[in-house]
Design a protein that fits this description.
With 114 residues, the chain is α+β, with helices and mostly antiparallel strands. The chain has one domain: Rossmann fold. It is 32% helix and 19% strand. The protein has 4 helices and 4 strands; from the N terminus they run H-H-E-H-E-H-E-E. The chain has helices at residues 2-7, 24-34, 50-60, 82-90, and strands at residues 40-45, 64-72, 99-100, 108-112. The chain has a 4-stranded mixed beta sheet, covered by helices on one side. Strand 3 and strand 4 form a beta hairpin. Helix 2 runs parallel beside helix 3 (50-60) and helix 3 (50-60) packs parallel to helix 4. InterPro entries: SAM-dependent_MTases_sf.
Length: 114
């Protein structure tokens, strides 16, 4: 899928997408430290658990652009309350409307920092 995505890019010969395997609480901060030029306009969280989601939000927060889109796969889901609690505790939920794609309950997204 990544190869197909990059083939459609005008700079497809330059690899801009990668998969980093491992525990996101370790790999994400290490990646961001090794790549301080990173700018994040879209962050997709499908982490289910409170601590993992909280730590990922805290890690990416300094790299987020104004008007960024944050997507949460299990937000407001009774079976996996961790993502909702992590969002509430890190960024709060009083800054913008939570939205979903038409006809879908998940994922939920928000534009923050507008």
């Amino acid at each position: 899928m990544l190869d197909a995505h990059e083939q459609g890019e005008h700079l497809g010969h330059i690899r801009r997408t990668l998969i980093v395997q491992g525990d996101v609480r370790e790999t994400l901060p290490r990646y961001l430290t090794d790549n301080p030029h990173t700018v994040i306009a879209l962050a997709y969280f499908d982490l289910d658990l409170y601590e993992t989601t909280r730590d990922a939000i805290d890690a990416v927060r300094p790299y987020l652009t104004k008007g960024r889109v944050l997507v949460f796969y299990e937000l407001a889901h009774a079976k996996w309350p961790g993502e909702t609690a992590a969002l509430r505790d890190t960024l709060g939920t009083d800054h913008d409307s939570l939205r979903t794609l038409p006809g879908r309950a998940t994922p939920t997204y928000l534009r923050w920092g507008m």
